[in-house]
Amino acid sequence: MTERKPSGVDFESWVESQIRQARDRGDLDDLPGAGKPLPRDGDWLTGYLRREGVSTREMLPPQLRLRREVELLPERVGGLRTEAAVREVVADLNDRIDQWMRTGSGPVLVRFVDEDAVVAGWLAARPESEPAPEPEPVTAVQRSRRRWWGQRR
After folding, report:
1. Which residue, among 107, 102, 108, 103, has the nearest Cα to 66 in the 3D structure?
2. What's the rounded Cα separation, in Å, for the pair 1 and 131?
3. Residue 96: per-residue pLDDT
4. Are 73 and 118 in contact (CB under 8 A)?
5. In this predicted structure, what is the pLDDT of residue 147?
6. How many Å apart are CA 90 and CA 113, to the nearest integer?
7. Cα(107)–Cα(61) distance, rounded to whole angstroms?
8. What pLDDT, on a 0 to 100 scale, did the predictor assign at position 39?
9. Domain residues of the chain, as ranges?
10. What percent of the chain has pLDDT over 70?
11. Do the Cβ atoms of 78 and 119 come closer than 8 Å?
């Protein structure tokens, strides 16, 4: 541990003397990253967020996060199976936009999403569904394996 700063010495000159003494002792030799360029301005934050498992999207202000969700909405609803599920996702997003408009402020405008337009796009992007296969007829062996309550009349 270093000694305390003497009272009559300027703080900056005292720190510089501490660094010079450490350099003379060799404490600053072979440090990790020695001789390498410093990272760019944004790289350290991105690396930190990645290490901590935080998405950079979570760092956006609410209005920009909502606009990003509106942009990614077709991809999000693309995997849904029913029209009701698509409408539910759009209604949830519109509710959050409405809540932000009531409480938030800022220069970025977020518009409501047209539910019918999203559903129409979802329907157009879906592949033609194949007809359901017809059930196979029940054979005599399968009939004999029915439970006793299925055989009662």
Report:
1. 108
2. 78
3. 92
4. yes
5. 59
6. 7
7. 11
8. 66
9. 61-125
10. 79
11. no
